[in-house]
């Protein structure tokens, strides 16, 4: 199996990008930036297989796993078999795929005698209608709209939404330093990797297909968001959204303004998963998701290996 796995760097973005738009996929992993942000946390490496697919190799605590290949739908069975053969014959272990998208799982129809296929409930992405988040209509979103309007009244003349670019990286870094100090020492390990990923984005943002925006209050950045676009699904993916929690209504403001200014025509908005964190789950449910992008564990059974 002649697969050359490489680290994700700005130099190979052009090689990777075309594979992200080859088939339907409503998960946050359907856009390049998600792989870029978490490349250190999961030791993400990729290989191009026959110029038909991106195959993935990841590692956590000494255990190898993969993600579903990125390719055309009709190439999925062969691409899946290619990464399975690599795991079996080169790594000497059964194939495990985390966060497999629902479309791929349904298309492959893997035989249950050879594979465990199980939904990863805590990993499902929250999907919202773009117009609902931009306008906050109806009774169910009334509290969100009230908080937003209270912020607009309280800070009228003092706040400004700005589209962010590479030259604004110092403002974002200063904000992140303050935000990280607020979080204290007792935080999930992934948050530090997320901060490092954001720093990496800002160092390379001119090479990345991303959109960034922030809210300044009294000329100081107090909230910002980073997103990217999935053209196959007409879907905005919100990777990062951070705000000073001490300012009431600020999260509602950055949520709405970012979409209005950067994704005015996106039909769908993917706000990623809740990591199984109850507070995050309540916050995401409070925005009344229209659907979920479900993801699955695919694990090759030992007795099913050839």
TrEMBL record:
Phosphatidylglycerol lysyltransferase C-terminal domain span: 26-298
SUPFAM superfamilies: Acyl-CoA N-acyltransferases (Nat)
InterPro entries assigned: Acyl_CoA_acyltransferase (IPR016181), LPG_synthase_C (IPR024320), UCP018688 (IPR016732)
Pfam families: LPG_synthase_C
The protein's name in its UniProt record: DUF2156 domain-containing protein
Species this protein is from: Candidatus Blautia merdavium
